[in-house]
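User: Here's a chain of 126 residues. Predict its fold as tokens.
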Amino acid sequence: MELTWELRVAYDVAALAVELVGEEAARAAWLIAQHADRQLDVQHRALQLMQQAVSAGSARPRELVFLRDRTLVNEGRKQVYGTQIAGVKDGAPVPWPCEEPERMDELRAEVGIEPFDEYVAKFSMA
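Assistant: Prediction complete.
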């Protein structure tokens, strides 16, 4: 996905001004960044903006950690929260490698994300 200058500006505006553009536009901006897998510069910029928004209370940590994990996976690194699924094995979703798999649910709970088993049940093919 190639982001034009206009989309980059739209993303920056939406991410910085959730209270001005509304939750729907802010979510659209997050989705743009979340799926800009071949444009790490966009994901890095989005991470900075989202961290500011979360710190200011105008964005939820959930979206931030999903983007953080996605960016880590795109960099070839281990994710933290287990939000990115690598594939399916024996009918069950398997996350990309995690830094601390034994703490994954604890870390997820800290940012308001359901336990991994509940999350992947949504994708289960069983």
